[in-house]
């Protein structure tokens, strides 16, 4: 039973970690080129946005040529907290929406007790209601098992919505931040509920009400049953929770819950009815206790089985699957894919097949159907559901939902039309489509995706299986890092870890990880360096694997002064000096000395500037076949510390 308590404690700590992550940013619209006038004008507006919000009492609208920006803080903000929040939102937009003309970030920071909005567009939004797109951040916990009467709770919750909506839209405050309402409601059979609504003050009261009603409807239709959540739209925000978030309720008087609905008394209670009530009072709790006991026994057996059989949780790599996201019915998945028709099959991975599907709404999806009975597939399934629900970045593939019914474990992603990078870069005919500008955009996009995982997402994540087939390309050839089945979640103060069961793909795994099971963000940096060199050469690392490997071969040519010889002939019209700088960066990423490898933030700086002085690389890591043969022998002998390799660990998509 001690082991069960440990599991519950770990899950609880995980939820506490995720609780502070309030994802409300989104990038949409057209892109603009680096160093363009649009980017310069946006940066100019950003430079004074935080101070202008304070000067203008919490709301500021500005434009410079074709760039328009809006900033807003919640009512009752503290001066420095508002400034910090706006500056943080600007950093998020600069990092995650670096080249998008339209973006918005509703930043909710419980620690700093503040919320704010920063929005940029290439058209004026002042005085215009904008309902989409919406972002969400939903509690992972269900409310069903925590309350006795969901019908009563629903009635009280709806009444609290009405009160908050009225406070937000009928308020006659002279404050610039006029559309703002908070309510702390006492529920009859549940703890207090805290609710907040806010709109930008440039729209009308009726438009504000419509925007908030759309947010409430979105939560009610899609996420009802969860213990709190946030829905953000460009013009408004709706949030409710079971605790007083970021000080918004400091001076709010609690209001009682609405009265119970009137139920007429029965005129007489028969002896039989009374006996039935007594039996129910005695029997129902006993049955519930029995179910709880059976559940604990089952959990204990699962734990024991996982330890004895080296199953999905046998190593520290196991991550809880308690994270919430949209659940699809199997019937809908079957309808979308034509009962997994062979004609809709677009890929085959190590953990199952991938099918193209079309939802009733017309949206195209990619459906990964995990192989039945695959323990590694179960790990991947839980990892991706847990991690991708909390990750939003234009360079990460979007997980739309999952389905888990009977023996079926299914992941539903956005459909990415141009397959994976390896279908282009390693194909003699398609490689010509990858001009230097396209390759540059792919390399930079992958780097930004990794930076988000390592530093900006508030969930420090190590991917551990980055390679060309794990990088999907959309219709505009923008990259999206995919397949998080091998990923590891770190605490924010954790920088490295050690595992006995190493997973990944040979040739992309850093040598310290292969040899000793040590991994960190620098492990991903090494993999990124290999992919970068593959992009430069147009050749797969496995083509050099029987000798030294691509990193060591590139280092050998660099030392001999022949680095230009490895450049893909397709890039013959590109200035050699620019490509040599990228080879230089790639060699810095694959250095054998872990401490000498750069961080992804430093890599992005180097990629974006040809004036920064870059240090000289040291010897590249030699991942020779002898090392892998030794590990393979250990694996065959069943020794601790062996590799768990999966040459098809990725779902490789091909367009139809």
From TrEMBL:
<dbReference type="InterPro" id="IPR001245">
    <property type="entry name" value="Ser-Thr/Tyr_kinase_cat_dom"/>
</dbReference>
<feature type="domain" description="Gnk2-homologous">
    <location>
        <begin position="20"/>
        <end position="125"/>
    </location>
</feature>
<dbReference type="Pfam" id="PF07714">
    <property type="entry name" value="PK_Tyr_Ser-Thr"/>
</dbReference>
<dbReference type="GO" id="GO:0004674">
    <property type="term" value="F:protein serine/threonine kinase activity"/>
</dbReference>
<keyword id="KW-0325">Glycoprotein</keyword>
<dbReference type="InterPro" id="IPR011009">
    <property type="entry name" value="Kinase-like_dom_sf"/>
</dbReference>
<keyword id="KW-0597">Phosphoprotein</keyword>
<keyword id="KW-0808">Transferase</keyword>
<keyword id="KW-0472">Membrane</keyword>
<keyword id="KW-0812">Transmembrane</keyword>
<dbReference type="InterPro" id="IPR002902">
    <property type="entry name" value="GNK2"/>
</dbReference>
<keyword id="KW-0677">Repeat</keyword>
<feature type="binding site">
    <location>
        <position position="368"/>
    </location>
    <ligand>
        <name>ATP</name>
    </ligand>
</feature>
<protein>
    <submittedName>
        <fullName>Cysteine-rich receptor-like protein kinase 38</fullName>
    </submittedName>
</protein>
<dbReference type="InterPro" id="IPR008271">
    <property type="entry name" value="Ser/Thr_kinase_AS"/>
</dbReference>
<keyword id="KW-0067">ATP-binding</keyword>
<feature type="transmembrane region" description="Helical">
    <location>
        <begin position="278"/>
        <end position="297"/>
    </location>
</feature>
<dbReference type="GO" id="GO:0009737">
    <property type="term" value="P:response to abscisic acid"/>
</dbReference>
<keyword id="KW-0418">Kinase</keyword>
<dbReference type="InterPro" id="IPR017441">
    <property type="entry name" value="Protein_kinase_ATP_BS"/>
</dbReference>
<keyword id="KW-0723">Serine/threonine-protein kinase</keyword>
<dbReference type="InterPro" id="IPR038408">
    <property type="entry name" value="GNK2_sf"/>
</dbReference>
<feature type="domain" description="Gnk2-homologous">
    <location>
        <begin position="138"/>
        <end position="245"/>
    </location>
</feature>
<feature type="signal peptide">
    <location>
        <begin position="1"/>
        <end position="23"/>
    </location>
</feature>
<dbReference type="GO" id="GO:0005524">
    <property type="term" value="F:ATP binding"/>
</dbReference>
<dbReference type="InterPro" id="IPR000719">
    <property type="entry name" value="Prot_kinase_dom"/>
</dbReference>
<keyword id="KW-0547">Nucleotide-binding</keyword>
<keyword id="KW-0732">Signal</keyword>
<feature type="domain" description="Protein kinase">
    <location>
        <begin position="340"/>
        <end position="613"/>
    </location>
</feature>
<dbReference type="Pfam" id="PF01657">
    <property type="entry name" value="Stress-antifung"/>
</dbReference>
<keyword id="KW-0675">Receptor</keyword>
<dbReference type="GO" id="GO:0005886">
    <property type="term" value="C:plasma membrane"/>
</dbReference>
<keyword id="KW-1133">Transmembrane helix</keyword>
């Amino acid at each position: 039973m001690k082991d069960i308590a440990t599991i519950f404690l770990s899950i609880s700590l995980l939820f506490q970690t995720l609780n502070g992550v309030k994802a409300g940013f989104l990038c949409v619209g057209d892109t603009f080129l680096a160093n363009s006038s649009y980017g310069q004008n946006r940066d100019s507006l950003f430079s004074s946005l935080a101070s202008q919000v304070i000067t203008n009492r919490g709301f500021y609208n500005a434009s410079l040529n074709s760039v328009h920006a809006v900033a807003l803080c919640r009512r009752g903000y503290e001066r420095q907290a508002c400034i910090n929040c706006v500056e943080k939102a600007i950093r998020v937009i600069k990092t995650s929406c670096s080249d998008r003309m339209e973006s918005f970030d509703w930043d909710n920071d419980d620690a700093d007790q503040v919320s704010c909005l920063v929005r940029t567009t290439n058209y004026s939004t002042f005085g215009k209601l904008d309902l989409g797109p919406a972002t969400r951040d939903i509690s992972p916990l269900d409310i069903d098992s925590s309350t006795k009467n969901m019908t009563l709770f629903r009635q009280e919750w709806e009444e609290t919505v009405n009160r908050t909506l009225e406070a937000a839209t009928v308020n006659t405050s002279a404050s610039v931040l006029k559309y703002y309402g908070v309510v702390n409601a006492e529920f009859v059979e549940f703890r207090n509920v805290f609710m907040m609504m806010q709109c930008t003050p440039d729209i009308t009261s009726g438009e504000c009400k419509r925007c908030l009603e759309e947010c409430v409807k979105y939560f009610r239709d899609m996420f009802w049953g969860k213990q709190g959540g946030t829905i953000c739209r460009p013009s408004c925000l709706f949030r409710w929770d079971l605790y007083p978030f970021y000080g918004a309720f400091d001076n709010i008087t609690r209001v009682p819950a609405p009265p119970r609905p009137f139920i007429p008394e029965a005129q007489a209670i028969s002896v039989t009815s009374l006996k039935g009530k007594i039996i129910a009072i005695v029997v129902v709790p006993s049955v519930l206790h029995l179910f709880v006991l059976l559940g604990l026994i089952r959990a204990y057996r699962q734990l024991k089985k996982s330890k004895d059989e080296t199953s999905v949780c046998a190593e520290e790599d196991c991550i809880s699957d308690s994270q919430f996201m949209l659940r699809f019915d199997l019937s809908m998945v079957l309808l979308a894919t034509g009962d997994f028709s062979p004609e809709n099959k677009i890929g085959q991975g190590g953990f199952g097949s991938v099918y193209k599907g079309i939802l009733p709404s017309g949206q195209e999806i990619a459906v990964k159907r995990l192989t039945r009975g695959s323990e590694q597939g179960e790990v991947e399934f839980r990892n991706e559901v847990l991690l991708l629900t909390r990750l939003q970045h234009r360079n990460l593939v979007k997980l739309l939902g999952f389905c888990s019914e009977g023996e079926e474990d299914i992941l539903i992603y956005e459909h990415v039309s141009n397959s994976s990078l390896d279908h282009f870069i390693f194909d003699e005919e398609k490689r010509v489509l990858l001009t230097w500008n396209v390759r540059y955009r792919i390399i930079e996009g992958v780097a930004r995706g990794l930076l988000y995982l390592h530093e900006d997402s508030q969930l420090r994540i190590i991917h551990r299986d980055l390679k060309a087939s794990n990088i999907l390309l959309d219709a505009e050839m923008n990259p999206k890092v995919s397949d998080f089945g091998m990923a590891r979640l770190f605490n924010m103060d954790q920088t490295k870890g050690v595992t006995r069961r190493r997973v990944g793909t040979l040739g992309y795994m850093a040598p310290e990880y292969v040899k000793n099971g040590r991994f960190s963000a620098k492990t991903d940096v090494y993999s990124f360096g290999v992919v970068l060199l593959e992009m430069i050469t147009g050749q797969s690392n496995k083509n050099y694997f029987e000798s030294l490997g691509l990193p060591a071969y590139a280092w050998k040519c660099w030392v001999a002064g022949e680095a230009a010889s490895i450049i893909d002939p397709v890039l013959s019209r590109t200035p050699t000096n620019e490509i040599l700088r990228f080879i230089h960066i790639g060699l810095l990423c694959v250095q054998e000395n872990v401490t000498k490898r750069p961080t992804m933030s430093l890599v992005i700086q180097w990629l974006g500037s040809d004036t920064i002085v870059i240090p000289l690389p040291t010897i590249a890591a030699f991942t020779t076949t002898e090392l892998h043969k030794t590990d393979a022998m250990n694996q065959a002998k069943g020794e601790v510390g062996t590799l768990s390799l999966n040459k098809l660990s990725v779902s490789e998509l091909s367009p139809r």
